[in-house]
Design brief:
This protein is α+β, with helices and mostly antiparallel strands. It folds into 3 domains: 7-120, Orthogonal Bundle (Butyryl-Coa Dehydrogenase, subunit A, domain 1), CATH 1.10.540.10; 122-231, Butyryl-CoA Dehydrogenase, subunit A, domain 2, CATH 2.40.110; 236-379, Butyryl-CoA Dehydrogenase, subunit A, domain 3 (Up-down Bundle). 52% of the residues lie in helices and 14% in strands. It has 10 helices and 10 strands. Strands 1-4-5-8 form a 4-stranded mixed β-sheet, with helices on one face. A 4-stranded antiparallel β-sheet has the order 2-3-7-6, with no helix packed on it. Strands 9-10 form a two-stranded antiparallel ribbon. A hairpin with a 2-residue loop joins strand 2 and strand 3. The radius of gyration is 21 Å and the shape is globular. Bound molecules: flavin-adenine dinucleotide.
Length: 380
Amino acid sequence: MHLEPTMKQAVIRRSVRKFAEKRLAPAAVEMDRTGDFRWDIAEEMARLQYFGLEIPARYGGAGLDSVSAAIVIEEISRANAAVGLCVSVHNSVSAYPVYLFGSEEQRQRFLTPLAQGKKIGTFCLTEPNAGSDVSALETSAIREGEEYILNGNKIFVTNGGISGINLIFAKTKPAEKGKGFSVFIVESEREGLEKGPIEDLMGMRGNPVCPVSLRDCRVPSENLLGVEGDGLKIALSTLCGGRLGIAAQALGIAQASLDASIKYAKERHQFGKAISEFGAIQDFLAEVGTRIEAGRLLIYRACDLKEKGNNYTKESAMAKVYASEVAVDATRAGVQIHGGYGYTKAYPIERFYRDAKVCEIYEGTSEVQRMVIARSLLHG
Ligand SMILES: Cc1cc2nc3c(=O)[nH]c(=O)nc-3n(C[C@H](O)[C@H](O)[C@H](O)COP(=O)(O)OP(=O)(O)OC[C@H]3O[C@@H](n4cnc5c(N)ncnc54)[C@H](O)[C@@H]3O)c2cc1C
């Protein structure tokens, strides 16, 4: 068992960190304030192949292994979590399922522009009445000749405001619970697809999350991903990989928080000494530092299982629930270490705290992750 990153993985971390500190960190405050997405930065990331992390070179991707992909997402999120969310969702729940379940023709048409960063991808599963319970989704896809007609409302679509390609989950057999839904690759310019206003989020504000609605949107049958009825299988498999992306995001935010807290604790003096000399502050740092390392190992272990083609459902749920809770606890401790300044925008720690929270919610809440883990422990 190898617990250390390979030479190549260490090089990838160094190069992503260099780019992220130079280009992503300085943009984070403004993106958080205005909610504006930075296309100029996205173009640079496309050239660095950050939009095709695990996609083979023949489709324009970087062909990285899963651990390397997690490292890229962690490092981007450490500098700018909203961009980390964009890259994570685009790669793990939009491009990757097209690679895994798409026909060769779909890979050429949709995966290549995704992997090259020419189009940004989304994953549209959640609806007003279908959150944790995905089988309750109401969007319908009714076949008419060689087309499907899609109607319904998707909400909380990450990258929604900037996407070119959308994976839409819709019921092809409304009477059949679970089994009766399918996935469609729908281009943003297709008539009948409308995007709603950008959500006014608590954190991750630099990501244009918005609703996507379908009004008699006609989609050719060649845009069906996999076969009819594959929706639940594709959703579950995709979310398994997606959880690793969220876990890596959370880890990046937790690491940013620890780094900022260490710096602040060394600089801030009270009672004639740096606050880093106080046992209470050291306890915070020790606890967070230890849990970050544990989270990292859980993530890499799940990535390794994925890489080897093994089942990693339980392990990815464990990595996600653990890393996202570390991120929330690490950023809360970080605000505490910064004292009153931590509650202002003078330091980035308050943004880290806001950004971290959603990691416990999206792509399956912590409660849902625990259900997945318990099911696996109880029933194998
Ligand atoms: C910023 C952001 C971005 C998002 N991006 C996307 C995206 O790109 N694509 C997408 O499809 N979705 C996206 N989502 C939606 C997200 O995945 C859902 O919000 C999440 O799955 C929870 O669903 P819900 O909000 O409907 O909560 P609900 O399912 O209503 O849950 C409410 C509460 O009840 C708990 N709960 C529910 N069922 C159970 C149960 N059986 N046992 C115990 N507790 C339970 C939950 O854990 C939670 O605490 C995003 C959400 C946000 C906030």
